[in-house]
């Protein structure tokens, strides 16, 4: 049998990614990723690690010592948090407002926690009193919530949830992958004990590294269950108490020792992704965290004005929509996939489809990170306008980009 191998150089097509993520990486991030590797215990490398921790403290608006990276996608960060925070049998409350609340419940269930859920319809968010009532009834060890859920585009208000958790001795974990930097998230002010994120949304990087931050209270709870593996364990290490964290790779107790002064040889840091994550944070800090949020609000507002001018109906509670993504109902007279495919193949612009109960009903259009800028918004709206009418749409024509331009004025 003859096996043929294609030796062509990798050359992906040019795309403008205007969906719910991932988005186009900032060119400065791509340049940082191309830097040469160095040894994991080189003083320059550990210096970069410390610098990255400091940068993400600014991104998260926290003083937490344990602000670091998990090697893997944003889901790796979620899993590391939940398997490290939850013991088998611990109660966890997961308020579900979209697909990613279901994901938190799924991971917590696999961690053998006692999972309790409350739900609102997709397109809505929870009121603080709904969370408080459930906490008082269930008495969980952990509250696990999503801030921004791209499946619904909703942004869950969190500013009162930390006080509720503190009053009831509950650890508060938040997945802010889709919302961080595009929406306000002052971790210390809102008393959030643990947050995990990814780079592929408003931070303007690729998927592959998951920054996290832990309060001292949460870190101390996790350290009680740390188990240092044989081969790197010394007489100075004190093993935690059973039940140990059931994952070696995601044992945040050992990962803290890797990022801390001990530099425990837990894993080999993904050096290129460290460069990447650090540069993502540097770019945000250079702009200013609040200014980055305002930029996403500006360009997200222009996108919203444009799709509304096209006569498209917006999904969900607009007052609680994320700044960085909007969902619109697909008009009855067009085929959603045909319009999306024409935008992608003829114009090189990608918008998002949907899943779950919204599958085939809405498109999701993002203005995130490097793509949260005026030219990207105008190109996308003009393209959507043209492709809709090329496929039989009967609504307003030529109004989308004009409405966005008027919004910018």
Automatic annotation (TrEMBL):
The lineage of its organism: Bacteria, Pseudomonadati, Pseudomonadota, Gammaproteobacteria, Alteromonadales. Residues 46-237 form the Aminotransferase class V domain. Keywords: Aminotransferase, Pyridoxal phosphate, Transferase. Its cofactor is pyridoxal 5'-phosphate. This is Alanine--glyoxylate aminotransferase family protein. Belongs to the class-V pyridoxal-phosphate-dependent aminotransferase family. GO terms for molecular function: transaminase activity. It holds the Pfam family Aminotran_5. InterPro entries: Aminotrans_V_dom (IPR000192), PyrdxlP-dep_Trfase (IPR015424), PyrdxlP-dep_Trfase_major (IPR015421), PyrdxlP-dep_Trfase_small (IPR015422), SP_NH2Trfase/AEP_transaminase (IPR024169). SUPFAM superfamilies: PLP-dependent transferases.
